[in-house]
Amino acid sequence: MLLTIENLHKSYVAGGIETAVLRGISLTLERGESLALMGESGSGKSTLLHLIAGLDVPKSGQITLDGQIMSEPSDSKRAERRRHLVGLIFQQFNLIPSLTVAANIAFQAQLAGRHDPVWCTQLATQMGLNAHLAKYPEALSGGQQQRVAIARALAAKPALVLADEPTGNLDEDTAQSVLALLLEITRETDTSVLMVTHSAVHARALDRQMTLRGGIIAQ
Ligand SMILES: Nc1ncnc2c1ncn2[C@@H]1O[C@H](COP(=O)(O)OP(=O)(O)OP(=O)(O)O)[C@@H](O)[C@H]1O
Ligand SMILES: [Mg+2]
Q1: Ligand 1 — pocket residues by CB below 6 A?
Q2: Binning pLDDT at 50, 70 and 90, where does residue 149 land?
Q3: pLDDT, position 91
Q4: Nearest 10 degrees: CA dihedral of 86, 96, 180, 188?
Q5: Is residue 9 domain-resident?
Q6: Chain segment 84-127, per-residue pLDDT in tens
Q7: Of 66, 71, 87, 82, which Cα lies nearest the Cα of 153?
């Protein structure tokens, strides 16, 4: 099993009041498997992705990714594991404006000490970005920017891609083609995907679907 989540609890404290967001989440994901995460706004989808990525720690429960504990208390150990195991894709693309497309794609792989120029070139070709490599993100359309963000997330060959509404800012046709490219490359490379989406149509393109409701998995 690539990812195992056991009885995960997370709450936030605001104004002295503790609110439970995740109330006992357990799930597993096999290597190469894709899972769509649905649920109403505020149901805790991004919270769950942040915990899996080790960007935050749970109140209790454990997250194991490729044999590494992602719910580990040390920030630096979580960051190290994230660099080696996780590719992140966000709704807002989050490209670095001062770097070219080529440099954006290579950036995180370089940070992780796993830059592979041949793989980066192959990714750029597959994502249809070869004509744009010397440009800056501001000169690209939303769909092109998100394809750069996907290439960047895959450049370091992560075991798991976490995508938080990756097509939420794209028109429907662009969204479909970007999602198809993401799933094509992750299937070819046996990379697991956990993707948050509000679209039941997009969710059906993945191997499994689940819904968060009331802090637990509803289905
Ligand atoms: N850093 C934080 N501090 C306090 N409360 C937070 C924090 N982050 C999220 N929350 C609260 O936790 C709940 C879940 O938020 P989360 O962002 O995980 O929802 P979501 O399912 O991703 O929603 P959306 O579909 O709108 O993106 C919300 O009630 C939110 O207000
Ligand atoms: Mg969210």
Answers
A1: 12, 14, 21, 39, 41-47
A2: very high
A3: 93
A4: -40
A5: no
A6: 999 999 999 999 999 999 999 999 899 989 999 999 999 999 99
A7: 87
Q: 1 lies in a domain?
A: no
| pLDDT, tens only, 17-26 | 999 999 999 9
How far does the centroid of ligand 1 lie from the alpha carbon of residue 171, in Å?
Answer: 25
Single-letter code of the amino acid located at 45: K
- Average pLDDT of every residue of the chain: 96
d(CA 28, CA 155): 24
Total domain count, the chain? 1
Reported as type and span, the H/E element at residue 171 is: none
Residues 6+ apart with CB under 8 A from 46: 164, 196
Q: How far is the CA of 67 from the centre of ligand 2 (A)?
A: 27
Structural domain harbouring 169: 34-57+83-217
Output the CA–CA distances (angstroms, integers) from residue 150 to 1, 5, 73, 130, in the order listed: 24, 25, 28, 14
Helix (H) or strand (E) holding 35: strand 34-38
